[in-house]
Hints:
This protein is mainly α.
Amino acid sequence: MGHMDHAAFGWLTPVLSYVMACIGAALGLRCTMRALATTGRPRRNWLVTAASAIGTGIWTMHFVAMLGFRVSGTDIRYDVPLTILSLVVAMVVVCAGVFAVDYSRDRNRALLIGGLTTGLGVASMHYLGMAAVQLHGDVAYNPALVGLSVLIAVVAATAALWAGLNIKSPVAVTLAFLVMGVAVSSMHYTGMFAVGVRVEPSSEALPGATAMQFIFPLAVGLGSYLFLTSAFVALSPSADEREASASAQRPVESAAR
């Protein structure tokens, strides 16, 4: 069995991956709150932004953590189409879960279905990302730890959807996205501890791209998207702020008449 190192750069990748998960969760919660205060097209736009933020945050967390993954005795490459597919899966399933919960009349049933769908999608994203890993050897999984990682993903997804619908106060939102970051990171590392690699040394060149050639630039790009979108959401007025501004202008307009 090849010796695996999940943090080749020390605490840098685990901490940075946790930060990315928290940013995605915080932005998703904020956008969901904005969506609940609107109707029609603006509501759909906020929900899509929420889903893209959560999905991007989860994917970026996963592959930032993977930057620190090393296996002794073999190089590691990543299958580009499978890696991109894992990002698409993360986006689509989170979007489906968010819309299913928001537009359903029976919120409790929708929450369970949406949480299950989204959690399984997040787990699929993780294991698609792992399937994209190319190395000299065979990869095996511990079924019990795989099952535990899927369970964590479902619970985390359900909690995220519930929080988006029910949490309003800033302190509660902060606590929620910090806990969600822990849950998503726990799911990732539980899945990684389920991995076992039997190395078969070879001089043949591996197909795919290195982490620094492909994963790092994509993670930086998506991380920048999260930061820029966070700034946009933070600076854009909420429905309450717009209503307060309109109320403040009415007396001025009345006095002018």
